[in-house]
């Protein structure tokens, strides 16, 4: 019988274990079980609120539902190809080409999910913006869609032939060094988070509302940018992981932050409509009640 060869040589003094290797696969499974349930709850509350309370389901609601569906496809399938094990404990025949091929698929769904969540927030902003801001919002939406699609499908252009990106047995052809592009993409992601966080302040600063009403509305709409901190952490872990060859192990730590970013983005996109939900079912929290038509009436 031919001997099993690991995907990479082990560090000095380490003996590969192909039978019962150290594993952190359970971390991926736990995180990928809890986060989708949390974000699904908020998506369901959003769709309930817009569909049955506000009776105004918009394209942004469909986007956030699709963002959740896309998030479910991230990192589910590659645990069977070595994720959570040290790369030297993963047989080369198991790792190649399966791990990188499915990683590409997961990254596509990650990019689409983040894109849809952000665009959903920006489309919601369009409902409340004065006309003079709408061109700027459309430009931001176009930028988010453009860099998200390029980031999600960059692997199409990385290598010639295409299969060289995930099949290490292919020695012919060449691949482009896209490390600087990945950093640029991460910076763009963080920049749009900052814009989404600060935009409501400029958008609503001249709206005629009572002081605390204005503060409450701004805070509700700023929730879409709370994912900024997670985005920065995810960018740092991605940069730190780049020189590490033990990708099946390190990808777990990085992938967890990617999953957190996706689901927090979905939750944040759902929070702005939470005020209407509270007015309907918990009016004492916001000082409003609802009449039979679903319109808010201030309590005396």
Gyration radius, rounded: 23 Å
Overall mean pLDDT score? Answer: 82
Number of helices: 12
CATH topology term: Rhopdopsin 7-helix transmembrane proteins
Domain tally: 1
Largest sheet: 2 strands, antiparallel
| Strand portion | under 5%
Which architecture per CATH? Up-down Bundle
In the CATH scheme, the class would be Mainly Alpha
Distance between the termini: 84 Å
Determine the fraction of residues in helical runs and give it as a percent range.
Answer: 55-70%
Secondary structure: number of strands: 4
> Could you name the ranges where pLDDT drops below 50 across 5 or more consecutive residues?
288-300
**Bulk shape:** elongated
What is the topological layout?
Elements: H1 25-53, H2 59-71, H3 92-95, H4 98-126, H5 131-152, H6 155-158, E1 159-160, E2 174-175, H7 179-204, H8 211-222, H9 228-241, H10 247-270, H11 274-281, H12 283-286, E3 288-290, E4 296-298
Antiparallel strand pairs: 1-2, 3-4
Helix pairs in contact: 1-2, 1-10, 1-11, 2-4, 2-10, 4-5, 4-7, 4-10, 5-7, 7-8, 7-9, 9-10
Main location: membrane
Pfam families: Fung_rhodopsin (PF20684)
GO cellular component, one term: membrane
